[in-house]
Amino acid sequence: APVLPLGPVEPVAPVLPLGPVEPVAPVLPLGPVAPVAPVLPLGPVAPVAPVLPLGPVAPVAPVLPLGPVEPVAPVLPLGPVGPRPNEAELTRVVCNSAISLRSSWSVHGSIRNSFVMYSI
């Protein structure tokens, strides 16, 4: 659709000056300032009581050795690590194992169900 003109525009009224500005009153001083009262000392301070020693300290019992320590078994190597199976193959093996366990252990329902649940 074509854009239509708005029609004749009325002239804007001229901006008039505000007129004479009144002078600002001068800032007067506050007058004489009263002297500040001197800070008085707190008076005589009571002497602090001396810190008394705690008295004789009981001797500390000697730390006893734990006794003979059994030798630690040597850490055995894990052996060669094979390649990591891919996720799809691992899921297939676990699911097939769970299905075969479920079908073969039909008598032991609670054992079968919990084992299958943990296997999957």
How would you describe the overall organization of this protein?
By secondary structure, this protein is an all-alpha fold. It has a domain at 87-119. Helix content is 24%, strand content 0%. The protein is built from two helices and no strands. It has helices at residues 87-104, 109-119. Helix 1 (87-104) runs antiparallel to helix 2 (109-119). It is flat and about 105 Å long. The relative contact order is 0.05. The model has no long low-confidence stretch (mean pLDDT 72).
Keywords:
flat, mainly alpha, 120 residues, single chain
- Following the backbone from N to C, one meets helices and strands in this order, namely HH
Count the E strands.
0
What is the CA-atom radius of gyration, in angstroms? Answer: 49 Å
Shape: flat
Unreliable stretches covering 5 or more consecutive residues:
none
Chain-wise SSE layout:
Blueprint: H1 87-104, H2 109-119
Can you describe this structure in just a few lines?
This protein has 120 residues and is mostly helical. The chain has a domain at 87-119.
